[in-house]
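Re-run with default settings, no changes from the original entry. Doing this only to confirm the output is reproducible before filing.
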Amino acid sequence: LMGFFLLFSFSQTSFANENKVVFIEIKGDIDFSKTALVKKAIGKANEINAKVLFVEIDTFGGYVDAAVKIRDMISESNLDTICYVKNRAWSAGALIAISHKHIAIAPGGSIGAAEPIPTSEKTVAALKAEFAATANKLGRDPKVAEAMVDKSLGYKQYAKEGQILALTDYQAIEVGYADLVATDANQVLNHFGYQNAEIITCEEGALENLSGILSNPTVKGALITIIFLAIMAEIKTAGSGIAIIIAFIAAALFFSS
């Protein structure tokens, strides 16, 4: 009887764990605050033994390096990853979206338009390879992903040569870049069998916001300027100590992001 009870309890616990979903929203510009948020969510999922990461995304894009880090974390995780494109996943947001195992898209939503700015042969080649490798890893047609980045390619009837590829909701379904069109997150969860799941929401906190601010190129440039000016002031004032403290604080903020 005791053995049966323990087996039943273990089964119930396992079932409960499998039905925990960690939910986050990625809205606005893609920066390192979003990278920190995804890291926080994956850590939370591992901590509570959740099996699913659900990302609702609505973005025009952002920094490529931040998006690549998010892509790496999502595609390399052992979680069942689901992306819901609420309105749009353009540019860097498209890379994040296609790094998920499953993609759902809202009616009227769109995904793609990922030509890098500024555009150069080097940046296009590098980002095109990143998109294609991500798509191929998840079993999607890499040529679609390449056409989202390189407008010289075009893709069938969806984009002529010279036009960057951006897919509407129904087009994404046709080319295998979305599993379904859904009106809300609950419909997406129901489709993938998580209708009774416990939803744990992760939000951006003070640390994530600070990470985003400190990773901004303008802020980083200002911190470097402060460091050099403080060092020069310390030399000019014959080592009073105040300027070097300011330099250390600026350096700590620069590297802490």
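The chain has eleven helices and eight strands. Residues 31 and 65 are 8 Å apart (CA to CA).
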